[in-house]
Design goal:
Helix content is 57%, strand content 0%.
């Protein structure tokens, strides 16, 4: 399931970016930041607002399960699966920055955004001791942490950055429709891995999510 869940990360930018794929390059930086400190901030033991630094650099993230999150999967596999969620979230709002923001600025923004927005939000909802988790918040596969945060960020970026370059002056003709369809297809197929994999077990819950 973690391998299948990688498809949306790689595919999300394709329908929006015919000439470049910012989500692909951003994924390299996001995954690196995730290993270095992001996972520890999002899921590590800490306060009700943010995780601590116990798992910085994946220290202590081993092949043994962590019962706080799952008693069935290796801890390192769970951490890798959660990295897909961080990556797809940044890729999802990439469509809002095309022709509005420079590519390098987007990459820097993605790393900063995951650190100050995504990681704390993930800790609130999913992390050990997170205040929303304590209140009984239910987010099975990222409805809040991924989709609401990505959608809100896309709207804010579009409003803040203004119209795209050459908006209403040059017709917006698709560059490569088959390429966009391929990206949409991979996104659709890969989402089965996200939804079913979020059960963290091959059980009835995973089957219901898959169907």
């Amino acid at each position: 399931m973690p391998l299948l869940s990688m498809l949306p990360v790689l595919a999300a930018a394709q329908p929006e970016a015919p000439a470049i794929s910012p989500g692909d390059t951003a994924w390299v930086l996001i995954s690196t930041a995730w290993v270095l400190f992001g996972y520890s901030l999002a899921f590590g033991p800490g306060s009700s607002w943010i995780g601590g630094f116990e798992w910085v650099g994946f220290a202590g993230v081993t092949g043994a399960p962590n019962p706080t999150y799952t008693a069935l999967l290796p801890h390192v596999l769970f951490a890798a699966f959660q990295a897909m969620f961080a990556g797809i979230t940044v890729a999802l709002f990439s469509g809002a920055i095309i022709d509005r923001m420079r590519f390098v600025a987007y990459l820097a923004f993605g790393v900063i955004w995951t650190t100050i927005i995504y990681d704390p939000l993930a800790h609130w909802v999913w992390g050990d001791g997170g205040w929303l988790r304590k209140l009984g918040a239910l987010d099975f596969a990222g409805g809040t942490v991924v989709h609401i945060s990505a959608g809100t960020t896309a709207v804010v970026l579009a409003l803040f950055l203004g119209p795209r370059r050459d908006f209403k002056r040059i017709p917006n003709v698709p560059h490569n429709v088959p390429f966009a369809l391929l990206g949409a297809g991979l996104l659709w197929f890969g989402w089965f891995g996200f939804n079913a994999g979020s059960a963290l077990a091959a059980d009835g819950i995973a089957a219901n999510a898959l169907v």
